TrEMBL record:
Residues 165-264 form the HTH araC/xylS-type domain. Coiled coil: none annotated. Keywords: DNA-binding, Transcription, Transcription regulation. This is Helix-turn-helix domain-containing protein. InterPro entries: AraC-bd, Homeodomain-like_sf, HTH-like, HTH_AraC, HTH_AraC-typ_CS. The keyword Transcription regulation applies. It comes from the Bacteria.
Length: 279
C-alpha cells in the first residue's frame, strides 16, 4: 500500500511532491537543474529567472516554472525582493498537462492571471503520510493546474474537436443506462443532429443507434463468457430491463440465445471439450 501512494506508480500519474511559501528575503537558487516540475507564483516584489540563455524579469501576479533537467538560476531583486509560493510535482502525465498551458521550455513564464492564484497553492501544502491526505494533495495540485490550463490555454487545446470520438466515448461510458437515447448523445456532444449522424456513419459504418446496440451486445458477450452472472443480471448490466427483449436482440445479433452462448463458451473453457462444443 505504501509504495502505491508515495511514489510515481500512483494511479493519478501526476502527483504532488512538496510546496511552500518563501517570504521576502534574498534567497536565490542555482545555477543548477532539478528532476521535478516546480511551479512558482509571485505574490509581491520582483526577481529574475535565467534559463536557456534568456533572462526573465518577473513581478507580482506572474508565474514561472522549472522544467526537469533544465538548468536554471533565479534570484530576487536586491531593492524590491520577491515573495512567492511554489509547488513541486511530477508523474508520467505531468509533461502532457503542462503542454496544455502556454508554459514551454523556451518561455517558462506567464503574465498575471485574471485573479490571484495564491490560495490554490496553499491548499496542497499540508499533505501528510496517509493515503487519504496524499490523494487530496494530488487532487488539489490538479485543481491548481486546471486554472493554469483555463487562464493560459496552450495550442493543443485549440485543436478541432473529434465529435465522433466524443460520441463513441459517451456511448461506451453510458451504454448501461436503459434511458440512453440518441438525443442525449447529440446534446452531450453539442453538435447539430444530422451533421453528427453523417460524420458518425462515415467514420464507423454504423448509425448512432446501431452503435449503441452493438456496444451493449459486445459487453453482454464479455459478461456471458466470463462473469458467471445469470442472464437477467447480464441484461440489466447492459441497459435492458426486460430479459425477454434482451434475449431477442441478442439472438438476432449473434444467432444464439444468451443461455446458449454462455453454455457454448463454458464448454470451450473446459479441457478437452472444445471440439465437442464446435460440432
Amino acid at each position: 500500500m505504501d509504495s502505491l501512494w508515495r511514489d510515481g506508480s500512483r494511479a493519478s500519474q501526476i502527483y504532488f511532491i512538496s510546496g511552500g511559501h518563501k517570504p521576502v528575503n534574498l534567497h536565490q537558487w542555482g545555477p543548477g537543474v532539478r528532476d521535478v516540475y516546480a511551479l512558482h507564483y509571485i505574490i509581491r516584489g520582483q526577481g529574475t529567472l535565467e534559463t536557456g540563455g534568456q533572462h526573465f524579469r518577473l513581478g507580482a501576479g506572474e508565474s514561472f516554472i522549472i522544467f526537469p533537467q533544465k538548468e536554471i538560476y533565479y534570484y530576487p531583486d536586491p531593492v524590491d525582493p520577491w515573495e512567492y509560493v511554489w509547488m513541486e510535482f511530477n508523474g508520467r502525465d505531468a509533461g502532457r498537462v503542462v503542454e496544455l498551458t502556454q508554459l514551454t521550455v523556451q518561455h517558462p513564464v506567464l503574465p498575471a492571471a485574471p485573479e490571484t492564484l495564491e490560495p490554490w497553492f496553499h491548499l496542497a501544502w499540508n499533505a501528510g503520510a496517509s493515503p487519504s491526505e496524499v490523494l487530496r494533495a494530488d487532487a488539489r495540485l490538479q485543481l491548481l493546474l486546471s486554472y493554469y490550463m483555463e487562464y493560459y490555454p496552450g495550442d493543443q487545446q485549440e485543436e478541432p474537436k473529434d465529435y465522433v470520438w466524443l460520441a463513441r466515448k459517451y456511448i461506451e461510458q453510458n451504454y448501461w443506462k436503459p434511458s440512453l437515447t440518441v438525443t442525449e448523445i447529440v446534446q452531450a456532444v453539442n453538435l447539430e443532429r444530422s451533421y453528427l449522424f453523417r460524420k458518425f456513419k462515415g467514420a464507423t459504418g454504423e448509425s448512432v443507434s446501431a452503435y449503441i446496440a452493438s456496444c451493449r451486445i459486445r459487453r453482454a458477450c464479455e459478461l456471458l463468457k466470463t462473469s458467471g452472472l445469470p442472464v437477467q443480471s447480464v441484461a440489466y448490466s447492459v441497459g435492458y430491463h426486460d430479459p425477454l427483449y434482451f434475449s431477442r436482440v441478442f439472438k438476432k445479433a449473434t444467432s444464439h440465445t444468451p443461455s446458449a452462448y454462455m453454455m457454448l463458451h463454458q464448454k470451450r473453457a473446459e479441457p478437452g471439450m472444445e471440439e465437442q462444443a464446435l460440432r
